[in-house]
Amino acid sequence: MSSMNNFALDAAIKEAWRYQFLTYPNPAVGAAVIVKNRLFVSAHKKAGEPHAEVNALWEAYKAFFDAPPLTISHEIHEFLIKNHNGFFRESNVFVTLEPCSHVGKTPSCANLLKHLKPKSVTIGWLDPISEHSGGVEMLKSAGIEVNVLNDKRCYDLIEPFIKWTNDKFIFFKLAQSFNGAITGGYISSESSLKWVHQIRDKIELLVIGGNTVRIDRPTLDARKVNGKSPDVLIYSKEKNFDKTIPLFSIPKRRVFIEDNLEKINDYKFIMIEGGERLYKKLKNFVDWKVFIVTPKIFDRINYKSEDEFEILHVERRDDLIVFGRSND
What we know:
Blueprint: H1 3-17, E1 30-35, E2 38-43, H2 52-64, H3 73-83, E3 92-95, H4 109-116, E4 120-123, H5 135-141, E5 145-148, H6 152-166, E6 169-177, H7 190-200, E7 205-209, H8 210-216, E8 231-235, E9 255-258, E10 269-273, H9 276-282, E11 288-294, E12 309-316, E13 320-326
Parallel strand pairs: 3-4, 4-5, 6-10, 6-11, 7-8, 7-10, 8-9
Antiparallel strand pairs: 1-2, 1-3, 11-13, 12-13
């Protein structure tokens, strides 16, 4: 690919990571469109909302033409099909995952591209769900040049989706200072705390250690985003807890106190939050690890753990958010 095309795919991948976990039960997907020598980048942001390529195409169209303020997927599809007037004929589209051929909560993206007829569509990874695949054939049948890259970075993006679709996906979230301190109240920035609440709104089960519950007396809800609160599994040998701890008072939530992890088999999307002891016990049990690293150095004891993992992505916000996979 040319340097511009490489830049476009890189931008699509980076944008998709901004919404990792937040699209559950859908995968994280990014897209880019090069049209009239301009680059437009977007992502799938929430299940039921427009897919990544639709958002990118819509941003491109609105930059050149007056358009109504549409946000519903099928309305955008219908408007573009009726009003594109060949605008995308010389465009190049990049998407981290094969455009869907099926009709679900949203219309088929491959069908939309078939009508818009861009010059080319570059795909980072083929859809792993057989009933969703077929987009490549649909595009080729419309005379569109299709390039499938099998880019590992695009697989990494959808690994959680593959796992929770087929069984379950578990990740460990740990907030720390630059020098590895994890105790002493809130460590992360306000924006990171809000991001964690966004994730809690999506997960089905949150696992936490008994000591953390007793010491921190947490709520473990998603109040910063007015979201739903996940069920909670307190992993503890000691079953007696002060029931005035806020997490026990959240409506429509189930709280389990167990000395084993069998309960996770009833859920598909699971986050583990905890301190050093829980991390050491469960670090080899999880699919991914997510570290929120705040750019501060605290005069506190830092946690100690021998660990190696593959860094999948580093998201730079007010804090660094490091996504990693175990090296085992």
